[in-house]
Amino acid sequence: MADPLVLFMPSGKRGRFPAGTPVLEAARQLGVYVESVCGGRGICGRCQVEVQAGQFAKHGITSAADHLSPVGPKEQRYAEKRDLKPGRRLSCSATVEGDVVIDIPLDVQINAQIIRKAADTRVFERKPAVQLCYVEVEEPDMHKPLGDLDRLKDAIERDWGFSNILVDQHLFPQVQKILRQGEWAVTAAIHKDSDTGQPSLIALWPGLHNEAYGLACDIGSTTIALHLVSLLSGRVIASAGASNPQIRFGEDLMSRVSYVMMNPEGREAMTAAVRKAVDDLIGDVCGETGVHRNDILDAVFVGNPIMHHLFLGIDPTELGGAPFALAVSGAVHSWGGQLDLETNEGCRVYMIPCIAGHVGADAAAATLAEGPHRQDEMMLLVDVGTNAEIVLGNSERVVAASSPTGPAFEGAEISSGQRAAPGAIERVRIDPETLEPRFKIIGTELWSNEEGFARAATATGITGICGSGIIEVVAEMFLAGIISTDGVVDGSLAARSPRITATGRTFSYVLHDGDPLITVTQNDVRAIQLAKAALYAGIKLLMDKLGIDHVDRIRFAGAFGSFIDPKYAMVLGLIPDCELANVSAVGNAAGTGARMALVNRDYRREIEGTVRAIEKIETALEAKFQDHFVAAMALPNKIDPFPQLANAVKLPERKTLGGAEDAGDGAGRRRGGGRRERARP
Amino acid sequence: MADPLVLFMPSGKRGRFPAGTPVLEAARQLGVYVESVCGGRGICGRCQVEVQAGQFAKHGITSAADHLSPVGPKEQRYAEKRDLKPGRRLSCSATVEGDVVIDIPLDVQINAQIIRKAADTRVFERKPAVQLCYVEVEEPDMHKPLGDLDRLKDAIERDWGFSNILVDQHLFPQVQKILRQGEWAVTAAIHKDSDTGQPSLIALWPGLHNEAYGLACDIGSTTIALHLVSLLSGRVIASAGASNPQIRFGEDLMSRVSYVMMNPEGREAMTAAVRKAVDDLIGDVCGETGVHRNDILDAVFVGNPIMHHLFLGIDPTELGGAPFALAVSGAVHSWGGQLDLETNEGCRVYMIPCIAGHVGADAAAATLAEGPHRQDEMMLLVDVGTNAEIVLGNSERVVAASSPTGPAFEGAEISSGQRAAPGAIERVRIDPETLEPRFKIIGTELWSNEEGFARAATATGITGICGSGIIEVVAEMFLAGIISTDGVVDGSLAARSPRITATGRTFSYVLHDGDPLITVTQNDVRAIQLAKAALYAGIKLLMDKLGIDHVDRIRFAGAFGSFIDPKYAMVLGLIPDCELANVSAVGNAAGTGARMALVNRDYRREIEGTVRAIEKIETALEAKFQDHFVAAMALPNKIDPFPQLANAVKLPERKTLGGAEDAGDGAGRRRGGGRRERARP
């Protein structure tokens, strides 16, 4: 008779094992990651599994709870002392006795701390670089005078299979005391970054220590977002965000590089500022959850190249001019202490690789999260900022570039533009008949034409237009026929509506006739055209490279993408034509990618390999950029059709009112200015 | 026709290579280590070799200078700019054109610093853990936006074969500047401790950097000895020694452990003291030679277990009592900076493993240097101190133990004993007829009965008896019949000589009738008997373990061994019978072992494996120790014959005068006192 068949879900891995094999052992042999801190002694409770009972015809398995061994004394003891939910088994104790389907519950969470709902609740298969290993160590013996640390290493090798272990310096003076405190039972934290890497002993506690945490952090130019993650469950325990304090040295990236170039102490000051901000966030998430800083054992950081470099203490000056040379593009391994973070002394830091001088570790992390390289459909991943980072591809081939959009999308360079803050207009609709607008501001859910809006708005006032508002108002102006295909405000409409007003030789649209007066000027429209043309031209270069004329899916990463309506982005021609249902915002995908690399070290190898394979396009060096740019100045585009958009939205007839030449000039000026200047107003 | 045959000396490795193969390449393929910093560009001059011309019938080779290619332009250029001695070739440029015998000169020393004659001029085959690698790095390219560091790593892998390189943190902020200073040519220092280990980039210089140094240091309880070694030639450049400043916390090891136990800050103070002393010595050797601290890239430290632990910042309290548990016995990898040494920021530290709680890394290093495990003859290696460290064995099997000799051999516990210092009696002869002595003191080469001695001695006075003096005087008293086989001073001789005087119930021998009066009392003889019996009993236990009744060679390591006359040591029965020609002092063998591990990382693996294989005997646990001890109280021994000694020295007839029981009691007291106490007076 054949050995029992065991199928693990959700991985689907399966194999036959002799009756009596512990479920944990079967999982290990199949490469299914089941956490266990105590090494099968039935005391940590981390290895819980559930039987899925029933007929699994597809697999030829009839599974039942009693196809595992009856609950034994170890499990009984654990269930009495702790809280073992009905149906849960300890896989170290339960043995295989018949065909069975085993579910690895991804939510196993012992001694649960306060769990805050995180923005993204995706849970990933765990294979962390840091593992807790409970061991019982032989006592010293004069006949075998091996050192305490050496016997500890032997025990770890015997029970956990880690050989040739390196030991962190800070542990040497502590080992003897901890072993004696724990009466020769201790929990060791072993860091092993890759399957072939050398393991390191990084932390040690007396007795059973059942808590291990990690940090996933995205250092943005504007915002730093940090997640505290349980390495034992993979769950986000708390998240926190803060403004990047480097803003006081310069609003955008290039002004911070300039600050470093002009101030000898500038680099150090900015490095210290960002490290302190991250450390403060660690304090926040620890304070909120009661997690000890000392239990933080691993961390993954991502950021754009300049943030990446400044965080590591590297002068970013080289990134300020051609050839935009990164000091380091590959993955970086460091220590929390080396980066001035108060964590466990042995805490490791991993930084995801950067793709290119303007396509950072954040873009790489977003790529890891969204996985264009893991699927056959052609995916476009865009992170819009002062420089847009663009990744395009599928499982066969991935290309990437950055494009100098400038700060218009963030409300800068716009006459009534402002940061997204209460009082800022974020949604706009224009009646094509009357040309009358209605809008929403941040701070109330009411439209401006709804009852109670005026009262609701008194709290904040109506103060300007934020990034998503500017996209919508320009798109709605286009859909309402106020601006032409080539982006010119139609002055002839002044006869139909008082909202069209002359400003010197050009015309503006009055969005809110209050104090302050909020208008969209011809220059504002031009600024948006230049920004969106730069983005689209970059995307087109990548499409050229792959020889494709359409994409299957579009993902907006980052804060900007979370607030804009994909439809309006497409109406303006920021992005190529695509089925609207397949266009979505994915929030802080970079942070998600960092979490993935934190909870599963295989993702580190995946993104390292992907980044190596990604073909990098330097837009500034591509002759066709200019042509694409000029065509993209038109709304949505002078050349490219938008058939799927046209199915969803009634696009106006093409009309041109002249001025495209101006746009072309603007583009020429912008390109000629070089990268260091292009981010400046 | 067969390819040319190439034989490398002194290794004797040989192989056939196609004509045109560079000699350096042939050496690499055969595993012959030839240094090269510039990677075959003919600029560093480190890869020099010589042709041995002539008939080598045994190897079937007729070798001649012109069996290498003629001197090419690279060598010509080097010879003109630098100093290439006649007959020397650059093995990167010279190619094999016919059968040839190649000598790797071990003295290759470019840009030679001042070379001080070291105590030990042995030169070892080099294979250092740190290697200098000159590389030319691709300039940044917008089309291939790999980071500067990543291109550097690629270049190192391409030219030097190191893959998957880790990078020291401190280099991240420096890489870009150094690459640009060197105009994309740099010298990288790569640390790789083992053939399978992961290489690390630890230092980087612009252009060609042709200097790399290491430290080999033996931290003794009394003295710290440090060698500065060129990693590129393997030669000792300078040596320095200093008293261990921990002496102010306690004269011997156990009183230092007591100090730690009684003073909360004691451990830190002693760690700081020894680290500062080492750092000061580094300053001394650098100052003397003009070597920059920044060029020190590797270091090997050895010491007894308590020094080893204190240097690493580990509390040695556990070593003060049974079971004498070492915190760490295996090899330790650390960094210079972590140990408060001012060296290159990337400087690595390696500590040779300890054998047991009382047999330290110093004994392991001495084992490495003398190599009992590398030969078939049975070698006894003894390092006499407060605890004697004893290693015995051959290529088949090695055993080790420590034995509690106490401080008598160092002149303590002796009524007229003193440290070895000017004025101390160090050599003694006694006329067996007249019982009149003559002696030498430290500070003059004259014997006390020679003309001019009195004048020479006025500078220092005649102040006492040092360790080697006490060995000689007791041995000479035995040879002259003044003391019996069982160590009793023969009072009946008082009738023959006024030098035999009564002191209460026992008798003394007047060695110097001056001020101070220097006598050897019955208690002094007893103290020496106890010490030597402990040493001999330890040796006998190891001989029992191996089932042998004699040894082929005896090596005394350490300062004590350097000053005593092996003949007298054997007359007293400190050591077993052995041909006198095969007994020798080997000086600071521990320091030599440290140097070996520094210049050739294979020696690290060798001693790690040897230490693992050494069988450790805890003398306190062996029932037969007491029997051996009692027998060894006799001179030279109650049971064991000394036939080879008898061939060289006329031993007196055995006579006993009683008192052996006393000796037995003394031994019993000593053993019962436990290890912590046995080192105290």
Automatic annotation (TrEMBL), chains A, B:
What domain of life does the native source organism fall in?
Bacteria
**Which Gene3D superfamilies does UniProt cross-reference here?**
3.10.20.30, 3.10.20.880, Domain of unknown function (DUF4445)
The residue ranges of the 2Fe-2S ferredoxin-type domain are: 4-108
A GO molecular-function annotation: iron-sulfur cluster binding
Q: Which CDD domains match?
A: fer2
Q: Which parts of this chain are annotated as the region Disordered? A: 653-681
Q: What is this protein called?
A: DUF4445 domain-containing protein
Origin organism is Oricola cellulosilytica
Q: Provide the taxonomic classification.
A: Bacteria, Pseudomonadati, Pseudomonadota, Alphaproteobacteria, Hyphomicrobiales
